[in-house]
């Protein structure tokens, strides 16, 4: 049997018409015009393709031939395409077994000559073509992909009178499918199915058939071996039979058209081909609709981008010389939006001095097949406007090609640029005129990028010599070794500024004292540092001389106070002067000397009230038995106020040491001050358990506190004595007394 021709098939004896096993070779597949994916060994498919004219009569004739062990011939038809079947015949001969009786039958299948098409067949074909043309016309105008698929599903479903038609998309990453458009036959009680399902639910055998790419049809999901195991899944959605038309791109299944029917159904070749053609036309229309939507979206985004950027677009066909310009370009050249703009109109609107430049640039772009970037003036609307045209040569299908480009009004940009240029020029003039100041800029690495005439005059380096050098060139050797230039840049970057007062070096090596600062600079296209300083060498030398003179003066004043103290002691020697008066005089001279020392340290510019109080209390705190509480904000006093308040605090402290709280271990002294609304409020308050004696006469200390302080400082003062302490208040204007 292995040598039999491929067109032969083997049938079991007595099971010719209703055989349970029906094996066919590849030759039978070709005769039956089976799709590539179909297997002719499937009896259900074979029975669907073979049409017997009179099945009962044919069966009787075959059984009679089998009983006699004789050969027989059977005429039949094969279901075909184009709404018609083709004639064929089967010839069978007996194959004897070991006992000599016919055990098997050897059969051949062959097509007979084609018959002429009947009028009914021609009408059926014409009707199908009319249906497909009407469908194409209908979906062509729908535009939206979903609308196209829904209309096609409904139209096909009504045509086939089936239960449901669906377009499904597949998610290969998750191996699931769901309907993207669906029509359900409500007249048959069929519901739509909106869920997404796993591909595994339909069965691997069916999936493999679908993946082969042809139309897959199923007469009954219960008996078909591809769906038998998954029949329950289909039946729950009222699917007993159906068709699947897959859409495969680059070997990948991406979508499918499915046709469902609630009862078992034999799908004719005509119905199968109709479903396939509807699917192909629909997918073609959907892809075109998607492309058009994407194009519309792209064009909308382009229009929005051009509008936001203030751009108009234009193109010039070099073969026809036809200019196509947007409303923005027409407005730019002073052309009415409703008028067709020409190349000559564009040229006439240009400033006469700029026309040749435009022609040259466009001609060069055409000759070199390159881009162009043109800036010029346009005479439109009675005023001159600056415009910019940018574009390129585009080699389209015709031999001449075209120019495409965009344009915009840059009048404001030009004005802004000119204003910036003038501002920069004015700033440059200002900087160059500041000859007493060295003004320079450096990048983030400290490389000098600009150098004014003041820097050239002070440092001796010309602009050409300085630019490109590191700003270390004018630091002293000691500062370079210590990394001062880098530290200064880092401080400016970190804190926003870095003050600079130190000795710098000129080109000739001489040193000079400079004072200035460095600040970071950040801007459009700019990043680095700005450094400004001036030569203060003479001022520094004058300050050195002043400090020397002040130190000498302080030395001489202290010597003078020492001489006064010595003369006083010598003059009072041998007299009956009260020792307490002698101590009071020494204390006052020491308090005056302490105030002078404070002022000397600040070059007689002033002293803080806190330092004045500490210096005045120092002479008595070593023997005081009570604590002093100081409180108050920072107040800087001028020399005159510092001396007066220093003597006042000394008088109060000396009195507390002799008669008040400093004699009492439980005593307490509070010294506080506050500067508010231009007035310094000064308060001395002491408390003691000892009785405070009230003087019978006003002594030096009382007169100084109540009279001298207000007189010298222009304020008011009040001294109050009570049995348990002393309180002294002074109100002093800050103007003229505060440094």
From TrEMBL:
It is an enzyme of class 2 (transferase). SUPFAM superfamilies: GAF domain-like, PYP-like sensor domain (PAS domain). SMART domains: GAF, HWE_HK, PAS. Keywords: ATP-binding, Flavoprotein, FMN, Kinase, Nucleotide-binding, Phosphoprotein, Repeat, Transferase, Virulence. Residues 233-281 form the Phytochrome chromophore attachment site domain. Gene3D superfamilies: 3.30.450.40, Histidine kinase-like ATPase, C-terminal domain, PAS domain. It catalyses: ATP + protein L-histidine = ADP + protein N-phospho-L-histidine. InterPro entries: GAF (IPR003018), GAF-like_dom_sf (IPR029016), HATPase_C_sf (IPR036890), PAS (IPR000014), PAS-assoc_C (IPR000700), PAS-like_dom_sf (IPR035965), PAS_fold_3 (IPR013655), Phyto_chromo_attachment (IPR016132). Residues 497-548 form the PAC domain. Coiled coil: none annotated. Its EC number is 2.7.13.3. Residues 298-369, 423-496 form the PAS domain. Pfam families: GAF (PF01590), HWE_HK (PF07536), PAS_3 (PF08447), PAS_9 (PF13426). NCBIfam families: sensory_box. This is histidine kinase.
